[in-house]
Design brief:
It is built from ten helices and four strands; from the N terminus they run αββαααββαααααα. The protein is mainly α.
Amino acid sequence: MNKASRTSAGSTGPGLLCTLPPTCNPPHNKPTPLANSRDLEIHYGKYHAHVCEQHGCGFVFPDARLLELHQTECHDPLAALLKERGEKIFACHLASCPRKFQTPKARRLHLIQAHSYPKEYFFAVTNKGVGGLLKRWGDGASMIRGKWKQRDEEKDKGRTSDDQAEDGEMEVDGESDDSEEEVEEAEEE
């Protein structure tokens, strides 16, 4: 018997089961079955490699840069003090770009104009992570949001824009387009 026949697809050994927090640990989440170690590596990279370890947070991020921005913007007391003073703490998502902004909106406009990010990009990723997207859409989750469909006003009463962003909703086309003055103001920041 040669090595190839011993490792052929016909021999099915026990699969792997991921029970790592924050997305695969019982009792709140189901363990994730994986076929082989390659699938485990891919799964770990997507769901467990870049997780905020701040107590009570546990948000998952697609890369180390977005995790770093999240920790600064959401958990760093020094950054909160600087923000309160009106200083720029919202860094560009790209590590190669040194720009910082006073508001997430100014950063969003910069990413769209300077780096050609699509307007439908999930810019709230630094606040919310991608765990919700991955839970809802699985491996087919995308950072590019679909076209937003307006809801009934009765359903949305009392919901903030943060609630809507968390749910993955977007503003209606035409209503969210930023004026040239807003873009220029953001660039000056």
